[in-house]
Amino acid sequence: MDYLWTPWRYAYVTGAEAAVGCIFCEAPKQSDEQARIVYRGTHCFVILNTYPYTNGHVMIVPYAHLDELRKLPVDAAHEMMDLTQRMEGVLRTLYRPDGLNLGMNIGKAAGAGVGGHVHMHVLPRWVADANFMSVVGETRVLPESLEVTWRRIRGEMGNL
Prior knowledge:
The structure is a single chain. By secondary structure, the protein is of the alpha+beta class. The protein has one domain (21-157): HIT family, subunit A (2-Layer Sandwich). It is built from 6 helices and 5 strands, in the order αααβββαββαα. A hairpin with a 3-residue loop joins β1 (37-40) and β2. 21% of the residues are buried.
């Protein structure tokens, strides 16, 4: 029998990292490396998803704690879309995906993991990337650590 070790997910599985307050409001108070923030803009920041669907899974998050997209000021909404476009370029360059998923889950009923703070997911996708491990085993296999992903994306952000 083969074993896949993902000790970094232990806190998530056991609930050991129960967040106090909003994780998106707390993240900018930490160092970029600690919070895995790859870019800080005027109204929004780009952060790695701690529990990614695929390598390169990032989120564009406004600094303002808002639960609906329509409440987001125009300047912040424009920066969010500008950063989404920029991340498309970064992810295409670094990961050469067959496609990309972009999306928001606004509210718990829509599947938002952080229901009170809007954010845009941007993640690379490949043909047949949902293999037996994710479909049958309900397990994701990521070939790159979050630390490596953070360094690669952060470095590429400076090139655009």
